[in-house]
Amino acid sequence: MKTWLYLTAEGLAASCANWPCCVWSPTGERRRLPLHEAAGELSGRPVDVLLPMEMCSWLRSDPWPSRRQPRPQALAFAIEEQLSENLEALHIGIGPRDRQHRYPLMVTERARFQALLALLAEHGIDTRAVHVDADLLAEDQALGVRWFGRWLLGGGLPARVALSARALTALKSGLPEDIHWLDEERDCLGIDEWLLNADGRPIDLLQGEFRRRRRPLPWRGVSAVALGMLLLTWVFSEARVRFLESETRRLYAQNEQRFRSLYPGQERIVDLAAQFQALQSRRGQSHDTQVARLTRLTEQVIGASNVEVQRIDFREGEGWKIQLTANSFVELEQLRERGQQNGLPVTLGSASKQSNRVQAILTLENS
User: Fold this and answer.
1) Mean pLDDT computed over every residue of the chain
2) Which Pfam families match (predicted)?
3) 144-165 burial string, b = 16+ CB within 10 Å, else e?
C-alpha cells in the first residue's frame, strides 16, 4: 500500500503548518493530525499527496484526431475558452487519453500550487506524486462517494467535483439513474481502502516545471571516482579529437584533389561539399520540379482543408514555406497528416494563437 498524505478541504482557508491532514498507516488505519505532526510521522518517506477537489478544476478536451501525444501547449489552447483565467496563471496536469480519444486535464492556480509544494518541502515531506481525491474514482461506472464530510462525484461521470450535501440535493435529479453511491458513515475503512487502491488512472500534477527531480547521488565517496573518470574521459577525448582532426585534413586534401580532377574548370573552392552537390544536381535534375511539388501540395493537401494561405516563400536548401491561418490546432494537425499520406514531407512550426485563429508555418522540405 502506498503512503498517502491527504490535505483535507478544511485547511484551504489558511495554508499553514496546522493544515488538517490524514495519514494512512500500512494497515489502512486513519490518523488525523495537523501537517507539522504528519511530517514527523512520515519520517522522510516518499509519499503520494492527495489534494481536495475544491482546489482544482477538471476538464476534458475535444476528441483528438491524432494518435500522437499532443504538446501540453496545444491542449492548453484547446480548452482556453473553458477557462476563466489567463493560461499563464494556471498549472495544467494532463492525463492519459480515454476511449473517446479525449484528454482529461486537471487545472489549478499556479502560484497556489507552487506555494503548497514549498510548504511541503519546508516540512521535509518528500512528495512523490500529487493527485486529487475526486480523480481517484475508477472510470468503469458513475460514482458518488461521501468522504470526509463531502460528496465526491466522478468515475464514469463526465465531471470531477466535490459537493456539500445541500448542493448534491439540488443536483441529484440531473445525475444518471445508474450512479453507484457509497457512504463513509457505513464503511469508513472499506471506502478508504477502495479509493486509495482503485484501478483508475488519476492525473499526477507533478508535470512540466513541477516534475519530480531525481535525487542527486551523495557526493561523499563518489566525488573522487567521478573526478578520476572525468579526467580519463578528457584525456581520451583530447586524443580522439586530435586524431580526427588529422584524418579530416588528410581526407579533405584527397577530396579536393579528386574534385579538381572531375571539374578542372572550378579553380576557386569555397565550400567543397556545396559546390559538388550543386554541380551534381545540375547534371541529373529531377523532373519533379519545385513548382510541381508546390502544385501537388496546394491541390492535394491545402486545397482539401479549411485554411487560409497568407504567404508563400521558397528558400534554397529549406524548401517551400507557407504561412497559414486555421481555425484550430486540430485543423493544423489534420493538414500535416494529410501531407504525409500524400507522400509530401511537410512539417508545422511557429504555431501561435491570434484571437480566434491559429497561425503556423507549413514547410515542404526538399526531397
Assistant:
1) 83
2) GspL_C, T2SSL
3) bbbbbebbbbbbebeebbbbee
